[in-house]
Amino acid sequence: MYKVQFVGAICFLRQNGSRLALLPDGSDIRPKHLARIVVDPGMVTDEANWPRRNRVQRNLGEYRLPSCTVTLSGVDQPGQLDTSDHERRMPRLQNLQPLFRIDPNLADTVATIPIRQGTLIAFRYPKTLDEPDASIISELRVNHDGPITVVVTPRDGSAVRTLLLEPGTEIAIANDTPDDESIAEHFQIYEKLADDPRARLEPMPPPNPPRLLPPSRSEHRIFNGIIDDDLQCPNTGCCP
Fold this sequence. Notes:
Blueprint: E1 2-8, E2 11-15, E3 18-24, E4 34-38, E5 44-48, E6 55-57, E7 62-64, E8 68-72, E9 81-82, H1 84-89, H2 93-96, E10 109-115, E11 118-124, E12 136-142, E13 148-154, E14 161-165, E15 171-176
């Protein structure tokens, strides 16, 4: 088994028993959002076709995502996907704005990730308190033995990029700002996914219901450092 931590602005679109993780493109807002894969560099056994500009910090195991589709071993093929916990805890964009609809072919995304197998669970950031403004992350638990292959297929037709990881590697897929800068407008990045330009979201994410979101126990290094309860860059559910 291995785990995938989804961190920052990521929406999970419902699709016939599966989910499509959508990372809205935040490259043109302030502070700029950076979509990337983060792993322990000691767990990378091979990599291919990553241009220098897409290696954020290769020695730290960070790989910047181009406009692309990402597939993960044991995740993209049809199978059993349990989202019951995620459904119960995760706010829905359509509940916040009735006009909100998403066509994944039209949404302004930097990356999409098909999820068809595993168990998807919602948590609040590690070490944060049970407060209404604690940001939500998602954890995907994948039943998969052996090496893990990450395939990144750029939309511009350039060479497919791959990572080969040791069995059990914990992967983080992030779409947030690497700067320690917090502004209220982070949540409005989700407007980039809407079909209708009139679909506007409030600057602040909805408050979390008390005692519903336990803290993540992940020790992935993406969560190292000072954790601020007022992160304002949570994951979210999506439209039916």
